[in-house]
Design a protein that fits this description.
By secondary structure, the protein is mainly alpha-helical. The protein contains eleven helices and no strands. Helix 2 runs antiparallel to helix 3 and helix 3 packs parallel to helix 6. Component of the exocyst complex involved in the docking of exocytic vesicles with fusion sites on the plasma membrane.
């Protein structure tokens, strides 16, 4: 979830040579662990003292644990980095913008895109392919969650603001796709969620009634609130639309 607590850059690895060092340490420890395991196996077959072997295996376990922790650290590091850049993106009325602003990708997204490309270059040459894939595994789903929950931080979003956030999502999706070689459909889902906001409230209600819900009840309530807020629909919506909105709420509750 998006929290109000700030995350500073000190939380992440700023110098990517340090990230490369962690990746190299993982691979080196794994190599050493495998070599030692074979050696200890030979000692066992030659009747080496069991107490000595137990101590050696404890050391082996520490090496293996440290190796696994290095890889998991890299895996989690990318998630914290995404949170660092995307969490501040949605505060206030930042997406209640004009047409000219809709053409520009947000600075935070551009910085995240740049850093992901740099991390790709660093880790691709340091980790085995399956380890490299693991580092970025599931990142698209986390980004979808961050982006969609970001809507709850918005006070207002204009049609141009919807274009802007969709442009941001496309930029992130393209950067991640280049890394994982996967389209990252979770980000398609995030983009389609924000595209709901192109519709007036009655259109949003009608689309869900026609196609069925694809998102959670809370997600739809946030989208509906933003749509009402932008359109100032208290003035424009007639009683029949209000009745349909009530039916919409009941529909989501029972689906």
């Amino acid at each position: 979830m998006l929290k109000d607590k700030e995350i500073s850059r000190q939380t992440i690895i700023e110098d990517l040579t340090d990230m490369k060092a962690v990746a190299n340490l993982h691979e080196s420890l794994e190599w050493l662990t495998n070599k030692l395991r074979k050696t200890f196996g030979l000692l066992t077959s030659h009747g080496q003292d069991s107490d000595v072997l137990m101590q050696l295996n404890q050391i082996l376990g520490r090496f293996q644990s440290l190796s696994e922790n290095c890889l998991m650290y890299l895996h989690l590091e990318q998630r914290v980095r995404c949170f660092l850049f995307l969490a501040p993106l949605f505060r206030g009325a930042k997406f209640n913008v004009g047409n000219s602003d809709a053409l520009e990708t947000d600075v935070e997204v551009e910085r995240l895109e740049t850093e992901l490309k740099q991390i790709e270059d660093v880790l691709q040459g340091s980790l085995q392919p399956q380890k490299y894939r693991f580092v970025f595994e599931g990142l698209g789903q986390q980004l979808r969650t961050l982006l969609m929950q970001g809507a709850r931080k918005m006070t207002k979003i204009s049609e141009s603001g919807v274009k802007k956030i969709c442009r941001n999502i496309f930029t992130i999706q393209q950067a991640l796709t280049n890394i994982t070689m996967n389209r990252e459909p979770a980000l398609d889902q995030a983009r389609q969620y924000f595209e709901l906001l192109y519709q007036r409230p009655e259109g949003l209600v009608a689309s869900v009634e026609e196609s069925g819900p694809r998102y959670t009840f809370d997600d739809y309530m946030v989208a509906l609130a933003l749509s009402y807020r932008y359109c100032r629909c208290i003035i424009f919506i007639d009683l029949s639309t209000i009745s349909r909105a009530n039916n919409f709420v009941n529909f989501l509750y029972t689906t």
